[in-house]
Amino acid sequence: MCGMSTLMKGSASDKLSWIFNLFDVDGNGFISRVEMVEILKAIDGMIGEDTHRQSFHESTSSPEERTEIIFDRADENSDGMLSKEEFLDAARTDPAVMAMLQIAV
Ligand SMILES: [Ca+2]
Ligand SMILES: [Ca+2]
Q1: Which of 36, 21, 26 lies closest to 69 in space, CA to CA?
Q2: With 60 as the cut, is the pLDDT of residue 100 above it?
């Protein structure tokens, strides 16, 4: 995946912005559920099944389920989309969101 070297070098805020842009596939400034499911599936594919099983309980293991939980926690105005602000707030304040994104910053 390109852009990883930028991810490693930047500050936590830089990294979260980069991650937001990664999830915002169509670049409209919001992450939709469809976009999040797609990226979580891609991340799962990169990490591999074995790591995945060790890191997550069965009940929250599918990308679809994790997306629902993340939106429940992060979508403050309940419009079904995550703005950059909502995403950054949730990522900074909610370790469970970061764990479900499988991202360490
Ligand atoms: Ca989008
Ligand atoms: Ca929202």
Answers
A1: 36
A2: yes
**pLDDT at position 1:** 46
- CA 95/CA 6 separation, integer angstroms: 22
- Structural domains of the chain sorted by starting position, each given as residue range(s) with its CATH number in brackets: 2-100 (1.10.238.10)
What is the per-residue pLDDT across 5-33, written as a single tens digit (0 to 9) for each?
555 667 888 889 999 999 999 999 999 99
CA of 81 to the centre of ligand 2 (A): 4
CA of 32 to the centre of ligand 2 (A): 9
All residues with CB under 5 Å from ion ligand 2: 75, 77, 79
CA of 91 to the centre of ligand 2 (A): 14
Q: Which of the listed ranges 13-22, 77-86, 93-102 does the model predict with the highest average pLDDT?
A: 77-86
How far apart (Å, rounded) are the C-alpha atoms in residues 98 and 66?
11
